[in-house]
Amino acid sequence: FLGTRDAPPRPGSRGARGVSREGAISPATMTLRARWLVAALLLAAVTACDAARHHPEHFGTGTSAAAGIGRSSHFPARAPPIEINPTDGDVDGVVIFLHGLGGSPEKETWLANDPNKRYARPGIKWIFPWSPELDVTVTKQREPAWYDINDFNIGSLEDDRSHILAASRYIESIVDAQVNELGIDPRRVVVGGFSQGGAIALTASLRYPKRLGGILALSTYLPLRDEYPEEMNSRQRWTPLFQAHGKDDRVLRMEYYFATRAKMSKLGFKNRWDYLYPGLGHDKCREETLDMYAFLDDVFGDKYDDLDEGNWVGGPVDLGLVGTKNETKKETKKETKEETKEETKAAKARGKEAELPVVQRGGARNDPKQQVQRRLRDMVFRANALLGREQE
User: Running DSSP on this structure, what letter comes out for residue 352?
Assistant: First the structure.
């Protein structure tokens, strides 16, 4: 394109335009052609980038062995994942935690290194992946996001399937790197996230071909619900699931929680930890973090060996799956009521105002009237979420 002619013109003849009589291309013509070549290359690059942005299903599935982290070779993550390795020995378990819409992994690393709240079990490695930047319909701006979202109203939500699956494959590649390159048992890998990150964590976990150690679903929901159980690895039904939501969440309202809980129950998830936190919006709180750490203690403890047979049902919320657990809970409630009556009588006898004990789960007071009100509100939320959405 920029070379000389194959044969120079005869001496004394008139050469082609832009070519001297000696057969060389003039500097002006060289410059013009170089500019056209650069413009063509830039146009091709822009076209390829635009195609990748609008068609994420074309992202590759290759992995990188750098630092033991798998990443899709073409997935447009803003940076490699942040890793926090244990300082007290070899890696014995892995927690992969995804940030939410508009967030970054740097805002989540406190889960692993905050001296006041950190999860201190030996041998646990934390991985915090970065999302791409996308044009988000509901916020009308370009920002960090795992996928596009058109509406926060559950009735109007349309799943961005291509980006959701592309992000899911990326997270699966990170799990693969821990399993294949570091030799970690997949039952010692927990995948979780907050909000959009939780949605991707649920999607990747359900589709991963080997049973995982656990799933963390914080203030989130399950997208592409109609594709399951067909697209689900059936062995994941034994995977412990931690699902938590704030009762005052105004971004992903309670309908999302109940619809997801109903679907996961219908899919056969038996090892369940379900939490609702009064007064909590679309955020995290200390109680939720401590409950999550307790969940991880059980997942990385001695109980996980029996999970494939479904011998352990975790968590304080009974879903009617195990009769003995339900009977134990009834006995505990009866004892608590008797103790409350005795304490109230003793306080009145002392001429003091009786204070009801605080229930640790969710921080709600053990007031029967408040419990009935909360149950009624939950029933309304559940009805709104399930009517026309989930048949059971």
Answer: S
